[in-house]
Specification:
The protein has two domains: about 180 residues, Vaccinia Virus protein VP39 (Rossmann fold, 3-Layer(aba) Sandwich); about 60 residues, Nuclear Transport Factor 2, Chain: A (Roll). With about 250 residues, it is an alpha/beta fold. A seven-stranded mixed sheet has the order 3-2-1-4-5-11-10, sandwiched between helices. Strands 6-7-8-9 form a four-stranded antiparallel sheet, with helices on one face. Helix 2 crosses helix 3. About 35% of the residues lie in helices and about 30% in strands.
Length: about 250
């Protein structure tokens, strides 16, 4: 099993192919997250840290709306691409290669911290989860807002799927197909993931496979971990209400 950094370093050049239209997804996700932020912090703009920014899917959209964004990611390859993609769209912002368990920022400097796209469940132990949440709290200002998005693991753990449906993106070379295969651990909580992308190569297909692991954290357990880290006003926002494609947890630093 490769490390999480290796996984995202290898995926960074192809990550946009997960989406049928990456720019449309950026705009849609930013609008949804901005709605959650505005409802709790006011219109802003706000200083936002995206501590798992990847290639910029949420950060670029939030910067485009007008927020003052800083991006960090465990993968230096992804962070570099995020900065380049932001600059190409006229919304440049600083990025850093940083582990969310050791954020290299001063205390109390951000109005909001975003950790989206099911990034937090890459942490496979309670100690790592506790360390990451404590670090996010440290860099938030008093009464600042934490936003986490994760898969609906309560439903997923009940069903224990072995794969995800294929997603198709159209490129100049043809259609790219992305899907995942999951292998559950004996504990029923963690799973190994194989991320497949089938890329057209003339009359054949090039198969690109990356591997990583996740902890399928149920909501109650994540809610408790966030509260234990010193956050209050912990709330869950469903996709049908927020417009974001995953459930979103919000909490305040007090």
């Amino acid at each position: 099993m490769s490390s999480v950094r290796d996984f995202y370093d290898a995926l960074a050049a192809d990550y946009h192919l997960i989406f049928p239209d990456w720019d449309a997804s950026m705009a849609r996700q930013a609008a949804a997250l901005d709605g959650v932020v505005r409802a709790r912090l006011g219109a802003g703009p706000h200083k936002v840290l995206d501590c798992s920014c990847g290639i910029g899917t949420q950060a670029i959209g939030l910067a485009g709306i007008g927020h003052r964004v800083v991006g960090s990611d465990l993968s230096p390859v992804a962070a570099v691409r995020a900065a380049a993609e932001a600059a190409a769209r006229g919304v440049g912002f600083p990025t850093a290669a940083a582990d969310m368990r050791a954020l290299p920022f001063r205390a109390s400097v951000f109005d909001a911290v975003v950790c989206a796209d099911n990034s937090l469940p890459h942490l496979l132990t309670a100690d790592d989860l506790r360390t990451a949440l404590a670090g996010m709290r440290r860099v938030l200002r008093e009464d600042g807002l934490l936003l986490l998005s994760v898969r609906d693991y309560d439903a997923i753990r009940a069903a224990r799927p072995s794969s995800t449906p294929p997603q198709v993106a159209t490129t100049a070379r043809g259609r790219v197909v992305t899907f995942q295969l999951w292998r559950w651990h004996e504990d029923g909580e963690r799973y190994d993931l194989e991320h497949f992308q089938l890329v057209p190569d003339g009359n054949d297909w090039e198969v690109r496979v990356r591997r990583t692991a996740y902890w399928a954290l149920p909501r109650g357990q994540l809610t408790d971990a966030v509260a234990d880290a010193g956050f209050t006003d912990v709330s869950w926002h469903e996709p049908e209400g927020s417009g974001f494609y995953q459930p979103v947890l919000t909490a305040r630093r007090t």
